[in-house]
Amino acid sequence: DSGVTQTPKHLITATGQRVTLRCSPRSGDLSVYWYQQSLDQGLQFLIQYYNGEERAKGNILERFSAQQFPDLHSELNLSSLELGDSALYFCASSVGQLSRSPLHFGNGTRLTVT
Amino acid sequence: DQQVKQNSPSLSVQEGRISILNCDYTNSMFDYFLWYKKYPAEGPTFLISISSIKDKNEDGRFTVFLNKSAKHLSLHIVPSQPGDSAVYFCAAVVQTGANNLFFGTGTRLTVIP
Asked: Which of B6, B95, B102 sits opposite A45 (nearest CB)?
């Protein structure tokens, strides 16, 4: 058990809809990362938060947004969903510098857009 | 643009033999490298890492080798066990930069009993 909790595990929705994915980091971890894994693709970095502030952005679409709350949990909001957004979305957390504290991943949310 | 590449989607090895998983990267600024293992229906779990100031790091049955001039690293598993069957991801980071990991596409290792 990595200590990172993601909900829900599975999500099925229709095109054009909006969904929210939730992540609770490991106790004590200040950084939260979101990754997307599409079929046969590696994990694509979306966005990172550190102690409530956005720290880095990757290949995140404008239709997607995220935030980290004072209790350090994070939410990833996906709107105007398209078929191509179907993927596994992983949340990961760390204490800080990745060389001192590797990322710990949750078990992911599988999103299916129909 | 895929900055970290794993060109072998799959690898099959007999139990007890050596498994060698390869990874190439293009960004010379990467200075820290990690390997993650992923079982089905689970998130990736950290396996082993190496700093760019080293060329080898060993942890039990797992050894990672780094060749900076070739921008290549490899993970050796000796001896391979059926429980090692999983997808292995290589990842790299620029520690002074944005501090986010760039992942390869993964190699599925199957260890045959």
From this structure: B102
